[in-house]
Design a protein that fits this description.
mainly alpha, 7 helices
Length: 163
């Protein structure tokens, strides 16, 4: 992998995460609750102190700088998932992106929130401790499919611009 390839992966990750954020903003404007990334920062702050799981992350003590930390983690994970996309499909995908593999990989990344983040933040495996687990899981799957679409759109735009 060249430095240019690494830069493309980073840009694809940032672009895909931005597409996902636009989706989440639209949901929020429609009255659908979405994750406050400050809580991700709070979780990470407590993780540094040795605490992985919480009964309810919203009840945990606030961490200084949790909001910017949460957003930084959110974008870093998006970049890592873009790297996963390239690891699965190969570097050629960056130059000839295809929608279906991007949506498949993006959708597959939903295992991280369902099996790691939600349990660690007190929502249970696959949101099982929430009032509407199925709805929450389906919303997570849809959001990660949108992220996958963002992987494709970002890679296609970068290739179109010749970056």
């Amino acid at each position: 992998m060249t430095w240019m390839d690494a830069a493309r992966v980073i840009l694809v990750g940032i672009g895909a995460t931005t597409v996902m954020d636009a989706w989440l903003l639209a949901l929020r404007h429609a009255g659908v609750p979405t994750l406050d990334y400050a809580l991700v920062g709070r979780w990470a702050g407590h993780l540094r102190r040795g605490r992985f799981a919480h009964a309810r992350i919203g009840d945990a003590a606030a961490i200084p700088g949790e909001r910017p930390l949460g957003w930084a983690i959110h974008y870093a994970v998006g970049i890592a998932f873009a790297a996963l996309m390239v690891a699965v499909q190969g570097l050629a995908w960056l130059r000839e992106p295809a929608l279906l593999p991007a949506v498949a990989v993006g959708t597959a990344t939903v295992v991280v929130p369902l099996l790691v983040m939600q349990p660690a933040m007190g929502a249970g495996v696959a949101a099982s401790k929430t009032p509407t687990p199925l709805r929450n899981c389906l919303r997570s799957v849809a959001t990660h499919a949108v992220f996958g679409t963002g992987l494709f759109l970002s890679a296609a735009l970068i290739e179109l611009l010749g970056a």
